[in-house]
Amino acid sequence: MGKGKKVGKIAFAVAGFALGYSNPAMFGIDATVKGAAFAGGMYGMSIASTLWSVTQKPNAFGNLDGDYSQDDYSKFSTTTNDISQDAVIPVIYGTRKWGGLQVWHNPYNGERYLQKDVIICEGGIKGVYNVCANEELIKNDTKISIYNIQHQDAVVYRSGNTLVLKAGGKTNEYALKDVESQDQQAALLTTVIEKIRNECGNGWKIDGAVDDRTSKGINAKNMQFNSSQPVGCYCDPADPTRSNMVVLDNRGYAIGSFAFNDCVAPDNFKDVGGYTNTAWIRTDLVASGRLSGGNPTVNCIVQGQLVKVWNGSEWVWEYSENPAWIIRDFLTNKRYGTGHWISEEMIDDDSFKDVAAYCDEEVEYLDAAGEKQKAPRYKLNIILDSQKTPIEQLSSMLAVGGLFLTLNRQIALKVEKEETPCYAFDDTTIIKDSLSITQTALEETPNRYKIGYFDPSQNWTEIKVVVEDLEAQLEQDGRIIEKTITLAGCTSQNQALRVARLYRDLNKTCSISISFSVATQGMSLECGDVITVSYGGIFTEMPFRITEIDETNAGTYQLTCRQYNPSIYNDELGAPIVMPDYTNSKPPYTTTPPSVMGLTVEENSWTSAEGILQMGMDITWDDMYYTYLDHYSVSLSRDGESYKTYSSTFDTSATLTGLQQGVYWVSVQAVSRDGVKGAPAITMVEITGRDKPPPDVTLLDAELLPDGTRRFWWNFTYPKVNDIAGFKIKYTQGSNPQWQTAFELHSGIITSQPFETQALRQGVHTVMIKAVDNGGNESVNAAYAVLNLGDPLEENVLWKVDLAENNWEKVEHDGVVENGVLKGQSINDDLLLLAHLQPLAGGQLWLEYGLNSPSTVKYCLGSGSLAWSAPVETAWGEALNNYWRFSGIFKPYTGKIVINATDSLHLEVHSLPEAGNRAEVNKLNAIIDVPDRVENFSNLLIPAEGLTLPIKTPYYYTTSVRINAIQSALAVANVRIITRNPCKIQIIDGEGQPVEAVCDLTWQGFRRELV
């Protein structure tokens, strides 16, 4: 019998873990539960009644009246923004960037100025800052200031007439020229400021506007900032003061002004209408080079709703980013929440206070520099800008920290965290035969999580963090099961990572669910409670969290529970995940496990598909025979003294990730079935962060398809952490594998096999392959295959030239001729051969060559006849092509090409010495024949006496007939060509005797032509 809570409560249904253990997208409450008054509800308000059309020509209410009538800037457009009359005015909690909804638009003073009203959100907020028009800061001074919102090491200084920006290991330099220089526009201060603004990136920002209105003729050399010492200029993106900005110059101009109003009616109420219960901005903008034409977009950083907060002694209204107070406000607010159905008396305030305190607790994390920082555990910064149900809006808010609501006499807020079990169930309290057990299948459990959050340092855009379960990926042979979630209210990378790890660890360590019935004990429990269960000798005191309680008609209570592991809620850096064994097996043991032998550790750093460098290590050790071996425990230490467990595995290897540069001590221990550990095997390794090349491809094979296509297969063993992006295939003419000088057979990366190509034709080729990882690294060694594709048939030749005749007199080269072979000058010299030819016919061109060293063969078909315009004497280097007048580019030669009789032909062969041997070319022929013709036949019955093929090509001549497939029991079958025109054939067996057969055939020939 267990001891339970003494306070009885009415049974209810629960929403479940907001991220969703079984369905993370859902958050629902059983509408049949007594007191669950969530039936409908309204959210947001229409702005139809406040829209103002500029066609009504209101008076000029603006306060800007300077005379810029002589300026040549564009005027503001009178076109209003497109706004739906059903648009929702958002509710903003916490701090977010937002653009708002335009409701009034008034160009005035000759349309040189623009006044516009923008409703930001529901009223009752703390305020706004960084109000911008087209991303230009609206401020009261004329200072042009620079700062960085990404890198805390950001500095700016001036080195003579160069402005230097340094941040995050990246340096940008900008020349500060004088207007008397050749490029006067580039020397203007306006040009330099715009260049920094538009090109720099890397977190750099500039506040202040500058153009020729106020700074005409100011040269960049005279920029007022002149510090030669680095000046720090990092500003926290959440800091509205930007107190660390550096002023570059004070000769900018104010683009306008703004006034913030909260729940205040405009002074021209009769003309524009009232903006009831809203926070809104009125801007007065000046037309300029920065703001000209159209309708500028106004946005700002909003510090959102004031909510009711318990300060320890009383309730106060104040700004808060604590999820508990925000959710409570939404539940009870009558204007934009569910307050018409839920009163404050229905809220369990104690539960909200407990969760608020838990969210405010500071946890440590490592920043980008590896330094420890502290931050509240959970914050909520969210924009509710769409017409969703209250349940959907609450789901988005609850998701930022594993929060969930329970419903009983009151609505309570709870959070996934470590709890003390409140009741112990066993066989005496569980109704007989009511317990069922299920376990999430491995193939259904995600092993990669992508969690999206909105990063202030990236202009509040969504960024995704990735958390991997590498052990699960290895167990599934590298198969990736990915889950993507966007935390709409999260603006912190470390919070997003902690939520992702919680989600991963919850699914990984809590895969068992049970359901059972109890008697009156169920009255004292509520959803979210942690209990222990001992049942039938299967397990003892295994902890579970209650996810649902149902009262049956028989007066019993059915509990649905999910496995619970308190170690996954430990926020401490490096905190291990502990996997206790609650099963009842207690095998005997007699000895302490022996020490692990053969321990080796290698760094395994790689680049993920998102381009992020991941540092880790591969650990292996020898298998052992020990009767009571249960698993191996792998621990790490940074100082060689204090160790933390990082992995428990049944294998003799482990892959650890998420490490940092530096030295680690690695310990591996054998653990017996009852938890006794053997002596540790320890070794040291240094993690450098270098992304090592991928493994080599071990075998490359090729096959020929009937249409002449070459199909390539290869053998490759993927690494444990699969960072392979794909493969790259190259080829060279000849039989020597030279990766650096080879040509690619494709564009981009090959991601699957087989790979097929028709680029390779006649001649000897070496085809090579390497693996390529996400970081762009290639395998060290290439696997290769040498293909002898045969020579083309020399039938019906129209034109042929042997370039080796008379000791290669028809070519230019930088080598020597020995016994008819063209060679490099020495074993250290390349050989370059050039030939410029004017063929006497058009048709199908192909090259026949003999290459005894690594070589590339290129060709160019020039337009027009050959012409030579060289002076009387020219050096070899100048004669390379400079004086041949033709247009075209040199391309790698891969096979037969079509050439016209008017084309000039230019050949280039580049050979390299290899292994102490000179570069050599012993043959080079250029041949033009008539184009090949191919016809295919299927399921032809060919009698023993032969068959005349129905060739469609007119005036044809047969060069070959090939069997593609045969329906016969013959071990050997060949084609005998009896006559070539007409083409009559027989099928003969291995002894040369004619036989009858049904075949698929390919005929090849050409159409006879006159030269």
Topology:
Elements: E1 91-93, E2 95-98, E3 101-108, E4 113-122, E5 125-133, E6 136-137, E7 144-148, E8 155-159, E9 162-167, E10 170-175, H1 189-199, E11 204-207, H2 212-215, E12 231-232, E13 246-249, E14 256-262, H3 269-272, E15 278-286, E16 298-310, E17 315-319, H4 323-332, H5 349-360, E18 362-366, E19 372-376, E20 382-384, H6 390-398, E21 403-407, E22 411-415, E23 423-425, E24 436-439, E25 448-455, E26 461-468, H7 470-475, E27 482-486, H8 493-509, E28 512-518, E29 530-535, E30 539-551, E31 557-563, E32 600-603, E33 606-607, E34 613-614, E35 617-620, E36 629-637, E37 644-649, E38 653-656, E39 662-672, E40 681-687, E41 699-704, E42 710-715, E43 724-733, E44 743-744, E45 755-757, E46 764-773, E47 783-788, E48 797-802, H9 805-808, E49 812-813, E50 816-818, E51 821-823, E52 831-837, E53 843-851, E54 855-862, E55 891-892, E56 897-899, E57 904-911, E58 920-929, E59 932-942, E60 947-948, E61 956-967, E62 974-980, E63 983-988, E64 994-995, E65 997-1007
Parallel strand pairs: 23-29, 25-27
Antiparallel strand pairs: 1-20, 2-16, 3-4, 4-15, 5-6, 5-16, 7-11, 7-13, 8-9, 8-12, 9-10, 14-15, 16-17, 18-19, 21-22, 24-28, 25-26, 28-31, 29-30, 30-31, 32-35, 33-34, 35-38, 36-37, 36-39, 39-40, 41-42, 42-45, 43-44, 43-46, 46-47, 48-58, 49-52, 50-51, 51-58, 52-57, 53-56, 53-58, 54-55, 54-57, ...
Helix pairs in contact: 4-5
